[in-house]
Every structure is written in structure tokens, then in C-alpha cells.
UniProtKB/TrEMBL annotation:
It comes from the Bacteria. One of its GO terms (molecular function) is monooxygenase activity. SUPFAM superfamilies: Bacterial luciferase-like (SSF51679). One of its GO terms (cellular component) is cytosol. This is Flavin-dependent oxidoreductase, luciferase family (Includes alkanesulfonate monooxygenase SsuD and methylene tetrahydromethanopterin reductase). Pfam families: Bac_luciferase. Keywords: Monooxygenase, Oxidoreductase.
Amino acid sequence: MKNIGFLSFGHWSSSPGSQTRTAADTLLQSIDLAVAAEELGADGAYFRVHHFARQLGSPFPLLSAVGAKTNRIEIGTGVIDMRYENPMYMAEDAGAADLIAGGRLQLGLSRGSPEQVIDGYRHFGYAPAEGESDADMARRHTDVFLQVVEGTQFAQPNPAPMFPNPPGLLRVEPYSAGLRDRIWWGAGSRATAEWTAQQGMNLMSSTLLTEDTGIPFHKLQAEQIQRFRDAWATAGHAREPRVSVSRSIFAITDDRDRAYFGRGGQESDQVGIIDGTTARFGRSYADEPDKLIEQLREDQAIADADTLLLTVPNQLGVEYNAHVIESILTHVAPALGWR
């Protein structure tokens, strides 16, 4: 059995064929797609976060709205760039969104991806300390956030407050019990996956890995997952961790699918340069269900993960993306033992 959700990058544009022409279109359709996915039996609705881009940015209003409109489905991010975040204010937003959703929030965090602007986090008021990289700053923000969502009481109460205080030091409110165990880190390397395990966060394995050992992406990703689980066991955490991978997977079942994806998926990995670092990108899948099933059987990382996030072309609209999700759930997942 496998948790199957979708991951939307939340694009909007005025290009021909786009059904998301404004930010409002994208936000409202994101809510509608989450509702549709829940009705279809999917397990998760996840959203990518980018700044200074015509894509989903501030995640918590959207997550709260989805939480209020759904009842069962997990709601998450993949991922929030922690270089941009005030960890205290983020903890308040996350606690509120999780309470609205009834404890269904699954927050993916990370150092972030290449940006639309130069050092965009500086425009948000954040800069690395002396001798610190932007990645170090993201981890510093994350460390504070993790302590706060755990419910750590640290603030000295005012002796003459406007409202009565409970005894002792105070914590950030609202606090949502259990949220700390539902924090994920988007890891783009094997070493980062090991660090993720040491911090007690779940692993959200990236859609690309910032290293290339010459072996196929899915095998390198499977090695990353195993290193994460080994490091988790060494750290001695009490609970079982979760692991997610993301894939573009399209089952070709009708004329719309053939028009959009009939030429097949990207049948091999790609190797490129990201921020001056060699990176390996995984392949995509598009084929008729029986052929798709055989191809996916060979993907070792999907087999090793407990959660699969289907990246969806959100600009094609809610109806088509619901069809994409339903096709995987009905034509592919049962044959692979995912359902």
C-alpha cells in the first residue's frame, strides 16, 4: 500500500491553452483540485512554493482553505524555502492551518531551489550571518521552527499582561500537538538525507539530485532513501519515518491524453548544471496503462518510498488534472500493489 497524492507547482499565465490566467485562478483551482482528489480517493494535496514568480507563493492561506474544504486528505508543501521564513510567525501560521485541517498538515521544508531574482530572501529581510551561507541560514531558521512547533516554552511572561497567563514560560500559540512529527525536509543529496534523519524530519526526496554518480536517477534516489533510513535508525528516533518521491506519470487512456502526452515520457534521466553543481533529473512516464505498469515496476525509488506525489500540469485545469489522478488510481495503482 502506498500514499498517493498530487504535487502542483501552481503556475499561471496568459499563454494559449492555460486555464489558470491569474493568481486567483490558480489559488481557487488548487482548492477545487484538492477536493476532487479527496473524492477520488487520493491521499494528499501538496503545493510547491516559489517567490517572485507567477506560481504559488504564501502557502498558509491556501493550506487553511484546503483544510476547511476537505475532511481526510493530507495537505502539504513541497517545499517551503526556509531562507525566506520568519520561523516564529511561520509556527503560528502552521499551527493555525493544522488545527483548521484537524491535524492533516504535512509540511515540506528545504533550503529552496534556484530563484527568480538574485538573493530574493534579502528582500524579505533575511541575510546570512558572517561566515554563514544561505543554506546555513535556512537550516538555522528550520532549527528554530522545529523547536517552536514542538511546543517549547521559552518566553518570559509579562508580570502585568493584558490577559491572564498560564503559569511558567510561554510558547507560541496556537500550538498543534503532533505537527512536529509531520515536518519533512526536501533533500537533494545523500548527505542531506542523512542530516534530515538526524534532525528527526521525514524525507521528501527531491525531483532532482545535486550529484551524479553515473547510475540511473531512481537507483541513486533509492540509495539516498536507504541512507536516510540507516541514519534514522542510528539516531534512535522512536517513531517510523516517512519518505516521499515525486514523479510525472501520465496514463494515456483517451484522446486528450494522446494529444498532450502521446509522444511518451522523457524515457531517460537528464544531467545538467544547477547553481554551478552537477545535477541528475529523473525521467517522466507517459504511456498506455499496461506499458506504464511495467515501466514503473523498474523504478526502485518509488518502490522504496511510502508516499508518491504525482506532479500535475495545473494549467490544464481541474477537470483534466482530476482525470490524470483518477487514471493512476484506477488503471495503474492496483496492478502495482499501491492500492
